[in-house]
């Protein structure tokens, strides 16, 4: 009789979906250890930039974890401030990547600024967008909201409130402890009315207020703790209401770039454009996410066989 393969037990770098058993509330918990540490250290960002990029990675995982099909969930900010771009994405089932763009001189001024609005201080005016790309067979979906609030998580709460009209609470923490980055996030959402029809209107409202109150008690250090297990954290928060845990999703530090994909993209350009991009008969492409470098000669690009 063949032996069954051992099931991998995830304790870190994961998305843990859950539902409050009797409250009509669902959620996801994200815990990131060496995955976020590797991504943030790859470009040697200043700490404040790395913290915001860490927030973006948590958001990509937390929101991308809802995808029920193969696709890419992207979170991207654009601003006119010191940090001009944060770009993160999760390719199902759990490949994460991200990068940030910033102006060194503006960043130095922002660090010294007395502006209390954190987002305005570092991002200026701009927007945060998320995109669901499920391939050519499905429509691409994008949601956009202004960069307003004290964190990227707050910006996304604003989106759910204004655009989706879906009650949502987000808590995100990014910390550097003894030289290593960790990040975590908690999201709770009120189930749509048709999914929580067993509750009266008044009961549903009370359930949601209670869920918000319980979720709001979470501490920043609990989200990033390398010791506290996800199941223990969720039990500590919601045991009075009962909490159901679903199978966790593993998260990986894995970029989707490849020589084949870049070559296919280059072959969409005309010969004149390729010649303009070339240097001594070769074109070099750098991946902004993972820092990989690719070099192609023009003859290789022209060879479509």
Structure description:
The protein starts with 13 loop residues before the first strand and ends with a helix. The longest helix has 18 residues, at 47-64. The protein has helices at 34-41, 47-64, 104-112, 118-123, 152-164, 201-215, 220-224, 230-238, 259-266, 271-277, 298-302, and strands at residues 14-20, 25-32, 72-79, 83-91, 95-102, 126-133, 141-146, 168-177, 180-190, 243-245, 249-250, 252-253, 282-286, 293-297. With 305 residues, the chain is α+β, with helices and mostly antiparallel strands. It has two domains: 14-253, Hsp33 domain, CATH 3.55.30.10; 259-302, Alpha-Beta Complex (CBS domain Like), CATH 3.90.1280. The strands form three sheets. Strands 1, 2, 8, 9, 10 and 11 form a six-stranded antiparallel sheet that branches. A six-stranded mixed sheet has the order 7-6-3-4-5-12.
Q: How many domain units?
A: 2
Task: Give the low-confidence spans.
Answer: 1-5
**Strand segment tally:** 14
The CATH architecture of the largest domain comes to: 3-Layer(bab) Sandwich
Nearest-integer average pLDDT: 89
Helix content: 25-40%
- The CATH topology of the largest domain is Hsp33 domain
Number of continuous helical runs = 11
Q: What value does the Rg take, in angstroms?
A: 22 Å
- Class by alpha and beta content: alpha+beta
Oligomer: single chain
Q: Tell me the span between the first and last alpha carbons.
A: 47 Å
Order of helices and strands: EEHHEEEHHEEHEEHHHEEEHHEEH
């Amino acid at each position: 009789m063949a032996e069954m393969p051992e099931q991998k037990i995830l304790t870190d770098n994961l998305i843990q979906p859950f539902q409050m058993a009797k409250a009509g509330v669902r959620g996801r918990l994200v815990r990131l250890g060496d995955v976020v540490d590797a991504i943030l250290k790859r470009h040697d960002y200043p700490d404040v930039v790395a913290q915001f990029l860490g927030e973006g990675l948590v958001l990509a995982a937390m929101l991308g974890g809802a995808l029920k099909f193969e696709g890419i969930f992207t979170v991207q900010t654009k601003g006119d401030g010191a940090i001009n771009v944060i770009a993160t994405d999760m390719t199902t089932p759990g490949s994460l990547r991200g990068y940030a763009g910033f102006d060194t001189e503006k960043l130095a001024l922002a660090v010294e600024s007395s502006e209390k609005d954190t987002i305005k201080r570092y991002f200026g005016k701009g927007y945060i967008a998320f995109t669901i790309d499920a391939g050519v067979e499905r429509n691409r979906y994008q949601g956009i909201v202004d960069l307003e609030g004290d964190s990227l998580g707050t910006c996304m709460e604003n989106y759910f409130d204004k655009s989706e009209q879906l009650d949502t609470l987000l808590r995100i923490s990014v910390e550097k402890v003894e030289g290593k980055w960790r990040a975590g996030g908690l999201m709770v959402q009120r189930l749509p009315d048709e999914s929580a029809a067993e509750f009266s209107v008044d009961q549903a409202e009370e359930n949601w207020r209670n869920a918000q109150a319980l979720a709001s008690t979470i501490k920043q250090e609990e989200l990033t703790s390398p010791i506290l297990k996800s199941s223990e954290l969720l039990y500590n928060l919601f045991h009075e209401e009962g909490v159901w845990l679903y199978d966790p999703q593993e998260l990986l530090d894995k970029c989707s770039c490849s020589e084949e994909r870049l070559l296919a993209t280059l072959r969409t350009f005309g010969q004149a454009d390729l010649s303009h991009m070339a240097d001594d008969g070769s074109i070099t492409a750098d991946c902004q996410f993972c820092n990989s470098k690719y070099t192609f000669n023009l003859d290789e690009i022209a060879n479509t066989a």
